[in-house]
């Protein structure tokens, strides 16, 4: 049996754990036709099912009026099983930010966040239940890794969000999703095959997939260098976001423990390769933590590392987790950090801090349910 692909971390499922049921979104169009034939139906039904799931968001077999009534139940059982159920939605920002807590088929909990802005709608999705990267300031990292999500479990978060926008469940009238960020629970590149499969399903033209643009998708990583190189070989135009959080190895070894394996310069070199291959600017994610990584000299070092590179810094005021010693930087320190980066000619923005009232940091809502 072949081992894990480069950059893909091994995961041992708990004893007795069941795999997620096979779902349409796990399969390529050819595999869907084979599965439909195995269920005793004509292969063209696979395209009809894909149309219902990816384009119409019609999950109820009663809505599949182009499929014989007697065939709907068997096809739903074979290819569109229930993967996950909503535990609850919580909202803030005048209901323009909605966080969803999902319970998966095995009782595992994951989260997604739908954020609507005047000019766009963005979803932040999870790729793992929990996370094995052990970053001490992150609620998900504190919880540890439960398991990888299947491709379909990832895709379904987005499909449900798109249905919610279409049906006007988020204020502002019907809308279409414009951006997806893999910045929810988990390290996306540690679940490489399923995340890549999800990107393909989301960007394949309808009815084989959702038909979104790769340029509207951002994939975050703490810096799994072999997986970044592999990602660069895929021919994608997604944006890569590197969760750096410190420009020096001494501090980053503590904040992002995987840095003990791949150092800052190795991570950035891999990111520059991805930028060159994809034609996309890399987003450097940097959570500002009071008196930990927000000193002006660290901003200067970061500016020197990024000067002249195809990069944009996204400063993130830390969304504190309950009981944590970590908290957001003082406004004056944040402003000085921004000014120092700008002096180096490095583009920088401060992320809009949405969702603090609803346990907005990834993993907080799931932690309250445990």
From TrEMBL:
Its EC number is 2.1.1.192. GO terms for biological process: rRNA base methylation; tRNA methylation. This is Probable dual-specificity RNA methyltransferase RlmN. GO terms for cellular component: cytoplasm. Its cofactor is [4Fe-4S] cluster. Residues 117-357 form the Radical SAM core domain. The keyword Manganese does not apply. The active site is at 111 (proton acceptor), 362 (s-methylcysteine intermediate). Keywords: 4Fe-4S, Cytoplasm, Disulfide bond, Iron, Iron-sulfur, Metal-binding, Methyltransferase, rRNA processing, S-adenosyl-L-methionine, Transferase, tRNA processing. Reaction proceeds by a ping-pong mechanism involving intermediate methylation of a conserved cysteine residue. Binds 1 [4Fe-4S] cluster. The cluster is coordinated with 3 cysteines and an exchangeable S-adenosyl-L-methionine. It catalyses: adenosine(2503) in 23S rRNA + 2 reduced [2Fe-2S]-[ferredoxin] + 2 S-adenosyl-L-methionine = 2-methyladenosine(2503) in 23S rRNA + 5'-deoxyadenosine + L-methionine + 2 oxidized [2Fe-2S]-[ferredoxin] + S-adenosyl-L-homocysteine; adenosine(37) in tRNA + 2 reduced [2Fe-2S]-[ferredoxin] + 2 S-adenosyl-L-methionine = 2-methyladenosine(37) in tRNA + 5'-deoxyadenosine + L-methionine + 2 oxidized [2Fe-2S]-[ferredoxin] + S-adenosyl-L-homocysteine. [4Fe-4S] cluster binds at residues 131, 135, 138. PANTHER family: 23S RRNA METHYLTRANSFERASE, RADICAL SAM CORE DOMAIN-CONTAINING PROTEIN. Gene3D superfamilies: 1.10.150.530, Aldolase class I. Specifically methylates position 2 of adenine 2503 in 23S rRNA and position 2 of adenine 37 in tRNAs.
């Amino acid at each position: 049996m072949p081992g894990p692909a480069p950059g893909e971390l091994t995961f041992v499922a708990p004893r007795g754990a069941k795999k997620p049921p096979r779902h349409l979104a796990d399969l390529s169009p050819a595999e869907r036709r084979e599965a439909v034939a195995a269920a005793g139906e004509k292969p063209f039904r696979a395209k009809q099912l894909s149309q219902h799931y990816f384009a119409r968001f019609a999950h109820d077999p009663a809505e599949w009026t182009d499929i014989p009534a007697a065939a709907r139940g068997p096809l739903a059982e074979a290819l569109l099983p229930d993967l996950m159920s909503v535990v609850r939605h919580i909202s803030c920002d005048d209901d323009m930010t909605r966080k969803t807590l999902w319970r998966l088929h095995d009782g595992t909990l994951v989260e997604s966040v739908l954020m609507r802005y005047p000019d766009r709608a963005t979803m932040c999705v999870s790729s793992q239940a929990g996370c094995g990267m052990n970053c001490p300031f992150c609620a998900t990292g504190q919880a540890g890794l439960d398991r990888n999500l299947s491709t379909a479990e990832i895709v379904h978060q987005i499909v449900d969000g798109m249905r919610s926008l279409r049906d006007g469940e988020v204020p502002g009238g019907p809308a279409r999703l414009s951006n997806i960020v893999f910045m929810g629970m988990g390290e996306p590149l540690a679940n490489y095959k399923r995340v890549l499969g999800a990107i393909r399903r989301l960007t394949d033209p309808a009815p084989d997939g959702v038909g979104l643009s790769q340029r509207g998708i951002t994939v975050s990583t703490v810096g799994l260098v072999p997986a970044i190189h592999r990602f660069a070989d895929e021919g994608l135009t997604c944006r890569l976001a590197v969760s750096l959080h410190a420009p020096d190895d001494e501090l980053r070894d503590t904040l992002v423990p995987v840095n003990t394996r791949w150092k800052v310069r190795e991570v950035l070199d891999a990111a520059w390769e991805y930028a060159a291959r994809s034609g996309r600017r890399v987003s450097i994610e940097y959570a500002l933590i009071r008196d930990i990584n927000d000193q002006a000299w660290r901003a200067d070092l970061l500016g020197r590392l990024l000067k002249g590179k195809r990069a944009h810094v996204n400063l993130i005021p830390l969304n504190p987790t309950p009981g944590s010693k970590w908290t957001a930087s003082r406004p004056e320190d944040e402003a000085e950090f921004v000014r120092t980066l700008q002096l180096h000619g490095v583009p920088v923005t401060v992320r809009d801090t949405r969702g603090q009232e609803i346990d907005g940091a990834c993993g907080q809502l799931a932690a309250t349910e445990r």
